[in-house]
Amino acid sequence: MTGQISAADLKALTQITKAGCGMSMFFLGVALFMHFLIRKNKASQAVQILMNLFIALFFLNLTFLINESIANLDNMAACVVMAAFMHYSMLATFTWFFMQALHLYFNLQKVPTDIKYYVFKICCTGWIIPSLVVVGLLSASKYDSIHISADNETSATMCWIPDAKIHLGVNIGYYIIVFFFTLTIFILTAVQITYFASKDAKAKKNGSTKKRFLSLLSLFILLGITWGFAFFSYGPLLLPSYYIFTILNSFQGFFLFVYYYFSSRIVVDDKKQLETQSSGTENTNISSSTG
Question: How confident is the model over 103-139, as pLDDT tens digits?
C-alpha cells in the first residue's frame, strides 16, 4: 500500500505511529498496573474483558515498535517469531474488540451473564482463536521479512507476511467480520441511548448532549471501529485515510486509558453517593426512632 505515497509521508506516518505506540504502551501499562496491583475490589465482567483487550493491545504496540530492529538483524528464525507474535497480537486485539461487542450485546438484550465460568470461556475464545490462525501460518511457513517502499525506494524492513493474498484473506477478512459485528452493536447502542435520552426531559440540556456524544465516541474507540478507516485508503482518500487511521489507532491505547480512568472515577463517585444516601437514610431513621 505504501508504494502509492511519498517517502516524506511514509516517514511522517512512521514517526506518528512510533510516538503513538510508545504513548499507548505507557498508558496501557499504567492501566494494567492500576488494575492488577492497586485495585482492591473484585473487577466486574466488563472490566475483566477490557483488561484482556489492554493486554493484547499492549503487545501489539510493543511488537510493532521492536519489529524493524528484529528485521534488521537478518536472523530468519528471530524474524519469523517476531512476525508470528505481532500477527497473534493483532488478531487477538481484533478478537477482543469482538468480545467487547458481544458482552455489550448481552447487556443490551439482558442475556444473563452470571453463568458458570463466563469470563473464563470468553478469555479462552479470545486468546485461542487467534493462536489457531497463527499456528496454521507458522506450519505453512508464511512468515518472513518484507520491504516497505515509497517512491520506488526501499524505506524500511519488517517481519510480517510477504504473501499479499494471505494478508488480505486472513487479516482483512478477519477484521471485516469483526468490523460488521462491532459496527452493528455500536449502532444498536447509539439508537438505544438516543431513544432513552429523548424520553428524558433533561436530555435537552447541553451537558446531557455532550455526555452522550462522549459516551458514543468512547464506544467507537472501545470497539475498534477506528480500524475501519483502512477501507477508505483508495483514490483521493488514500493519504487522508492513512493519517486518520494512523493517529486514531496508534494512540488508541491512550484513548482507552482515558476511558478506563474516567469510567472508574464515575463508578467510585456513584458508590460514594450511594453510601452518603444510605448513611443519610440511617441517620433519619435513628432520629425518627429516638424522637
Answer: 999 998 888 888 889 999 999 999 999 999 999 999 9
Residue pLDDT, tens place only, 70-112? 999 989 999 999 999 999 999 999 999 999 999 999 998 888 8
Residue 291 pLDDT > 50: no
Q: Which residue has the cell 508464511?
A: 142
User: What residue segments make up the domains of the chain, in order of their start?
Assistant: 2-271
How many Å apart are CA 271 and CA 44, to the nearest integer? 14
Secondary structure of 11-47 in HEC code, one letter for each residue: HHHHHHHHHHHHHHHHHHHHHHHHHHHHCCCCCCHHH
Neighbours of 192 (CB within 10 A): 11
What's the chain's average pLDDT? 85
> Is the domain covering 2-271 a CATH 1.10.3720.10 domain?
no
Pairwise CA distance, residues 92 & 84, whole Å: 12
Q: Which of 33, 71, 32 is nearest to 52 (CA)?
A: 32
Q: What is the pTM of this model?
A: 0.87
Q: Where are the beta strands (DSSP E) in 115-233?
A: 144-150, 153-160
Residue 4 scores a pLDDT above 80: no
Tell me what pLDDT residue 276 has. Answer: 46
Sequence-ordered list of residues with C-beta below 8 angstroms from that of 98, at least 6 positions apart, any chain = 177, 178, 181, 182
User: H-type helices in 35-117, by residue range?
Assistant: 45-71, 76-108
**What does the angle CA 242 – CA 246 – CA 248 come to, to the nearest 5 degrees?**
120
- Phi and psi of 147, rounded to 5°? -110, 125
Residue 190: all three cell numbers together = 447509539
Cα angle: 272, vertex 273, 276; to 5 degrees: 85
Measuring CA to CA, which residue among 76, 90, 97 is closest to residue 223?
A: 97
